[in-house]
Design goal:
The chain has 359 residues and is α+β, with helices and mostly antiparallel strands. 15% of the residues lie in helices and 48% in strands.
């Protein structure tokens, strides 16, 4: 019992030690495990069907520490797992106590050997980069091969029986890689009541040991392997290139400049008006508005007339370049809208201009 307590304590300690989440398996996997098995002291009625013993005597069987091995085949969906488990357990009989009178202890050869197919459902709780905790339950059958040759029975009992069985499961997992893991598992295993019998051909007596149930505790160490590598996560899509910048809108305003006290079109002004005419045609401008301006040299009335002359000169040039006369409107602002603010009677080249707006 001391060994049992130490092993169960080790499982609990490992469960508390996980400070980091194990990557869980996906898809099909297999696992192998082996360890120790303990059988709780089991109460029974022996020779209860032999009239000689007046309905049988109560007895209790204790077992030595045995061993267990499991092979499992399962499938994982995220943190959930379902598996088929094939388990083998064997424990020798340590003592057979019969409650006759003050009771008698009998020792001698005997064992309990089991093959148990089980279906389990489990859930893994990640607790770090490599660690996870498992809880689960299972149900199935327990095929027991029983031998009792402790000296109480005149003929040894050797019999096999099937019993319904269920188990509770807890464990600690450590992921070694994306496809393999080590683990420690504890199983609380219970098999339903069973009766083992044997005939004595010489004495024509029927012997039996009738148990209420068997409770076992298995602590195993194992290795789990993912049969198929998980698909690599899809590479993130390449970043979408930013949309190409929209072509800059064609200039909607052009400016031509004039000489002092003049309204004739210079070569440079003619070049700008040519660009204005081309843009008006390509952009489908519906109308062209021309406004003439002057500097502050001269009287306001003279400058008004001069600004109108400059607007008219620009219009004539555009008409000559194919812009319909009806699409062009002109006006003069004189010295009222200066580009460069100056005092009166100042000759400023930037203010001697005409603006051409495409609309």
């Amino acid at each position: 019992m001391r060994t049992k307590a130490l092993l169960l304590g080790a499982v609990a300690s490992l469960a508390c030690a996980g400070t980091a989440s194990a990557a869980h398996f996906q898809g099909w996997y297999v696992s192998l495990e082996a360890g120790v098995n303990f059988v709780d002291d089991a109460g029974s009625i022996n020779d209860g069907i032999d009239p000689t013993f007046l309905g049988g005597w109560p007895s209790e069987t204790s077992f030595d520490t045995g061993w267990a091995g499991m092979l499992t085949f399962g499938h994982a969906w995220g943190n959930f797992r379902a598996e088929l488990e094939l388990a083998y357990r064997k424990n020798d009989i340590d003592n057979f106590f019969v409650g006759k009178g003050g009771g008698s202890n009998f020792v001698g050869p005997g064992y309990l050997e089991e093959f148990s197919p089980m279906v389990n459902a489990l859930y893994d709780f990640p607790v770090g980069d490599r660690w996870s905790l498992t809880v689960g339950a299972g149900a199935g059958g327990d095929h027991m091969n029983y031998s009792n040759n402790t000296g109480w029975h005149t003929v040894p009992i050797r019999d096999t029986q099937w019993a319904l069985a269920w188990q509770l499961i807890g464990g600690v997992n450590f992921a070694m890689s994306e496809r393999s893991a080590l683990f420690v598992t504890y199983r609380y295993f219970n098999a339903d009541e069973t009766e083992f019998t044997s005939f004595d051909d010489l004495a024509a007596e029927l012997h039996d040991d009738s148990y209420d149930d068997f409770t076992k505790h298995s602590v195993t160490f194992g290795w789990r392997y993912d049969l198929y590598a998980d698909e690599s996560p899809a590479a993130p899509p390449a970043p979408t290139p930013p949309p190409a910048p929209a072509p800059s809108a064609a200039p909607k305003q052009f400016i031509v400049f004039f000489g002092f006290d003049k309204c004739d079109i210079t070569a440079e002004a003619d070049k700008v008006l040519g660009e204005a005419a081309s843009t008006a045609k390509s952009s489908g401008a519906a109308s062209v508005r021309i406004v003439g301006h002057t500097d502050t040299s001269g009287s306001p009335s003279y400058n008004q007339t001069l600004s109108e002359c400059r607007a008219g000169a620009a219009k004539t040039n555009l008409v000559g370049k194919g812009i319909p006369d009806s699409a062009i409107s002109t006006s003069g602002k004189g010295e009222s809208e200066l580009m460069v603010q100056t005092g009166d009677s100042v000759k400023e080249p930037q203010n001697r201009r005409a603006t051409v707006d495409l609309e």
